[in-house]
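We were asked to recover a plausible sequence for a given structure. The inputs and outputs are reproduced exactly as logged, with field labels preserved.

PROBLEM: sequence recovery
POSITIONS: 176
GIVEN STRUCTURE:
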């Protein structure tokens, strides 16, 4: 069973890329935020508001463990913070191929500035300037984790054909 994990900041397109890449590889796509919402019957926003971030990170860890137990070839879109808490990054690195979808804060601002209210970690950052600063500070903290990924790809100019080829050759090299 092969698992491909997509890592990266909010707005880097993990969910969309997961579906497209899964389609090309003939795998199924899952999304950890969606699994959490299905499991709790609550939106991510509500979970943060009612129970706080620490509780959300526990749910993320539990959902990751569930995904790791799935006997299926999968492309997994992970929540932006997931590789940066607990031992989540090493669990994923030990179980499959991790791809960091790289985007700069500037690039992310243009994708996110109209939807900050929907995102618990960005909801207080109104306006492009404030959003840029908040993204820079999150990215600075997270980059050391994201950089551990097996492969990196540009989030903004993603070449899906080349990425699919890279995943396949990795798979072959690992004898999977
Ligand atoms: C988060 C990213 C979100 C979601 C939650 C926290 C983060 O997922 O898990 O709001 O800490 O970066 P996306 O990266 O899919 O937006």
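RECOVERED SEQUENCE:
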């Amino acid at each position: 069973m092969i698992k491909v994990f997509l890592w990266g900041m909010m707005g880097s397109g993990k969910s969309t890329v997961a579906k497209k890449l899964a389609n090309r590889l003939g795998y199924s796509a899952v999304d950890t935020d969606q699994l959490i919402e299905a499991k709790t019957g609550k939106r991510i926003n509500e979970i943060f508001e009612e129970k706080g971030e620490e509780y959300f990170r526990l749910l993320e860890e539990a959902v990751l463990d569930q995904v790791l137990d799935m006997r299926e070839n999968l492309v997994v879109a992970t929540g932006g913070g997931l590789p940066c808490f607990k031992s989540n990054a090493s669990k994923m690195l030990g179980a499959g191929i991790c791809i960091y979808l790289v985007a700069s804060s500037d690039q992310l601002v243009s994708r996110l500035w109209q939807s900050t209210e929907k995102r618990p970690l960005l909801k207080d950052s109104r306006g492009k300037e404030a959003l840029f600063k908040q993204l820079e500070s999150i990215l600075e903290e997270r980059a050391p984790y994201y950089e551990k990924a097996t492969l990196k790809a540009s989030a903004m100019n993603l070449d899906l054909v080349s990425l699919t080829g890279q995943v396949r050759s990795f798979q072959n090299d690992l004898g999977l």
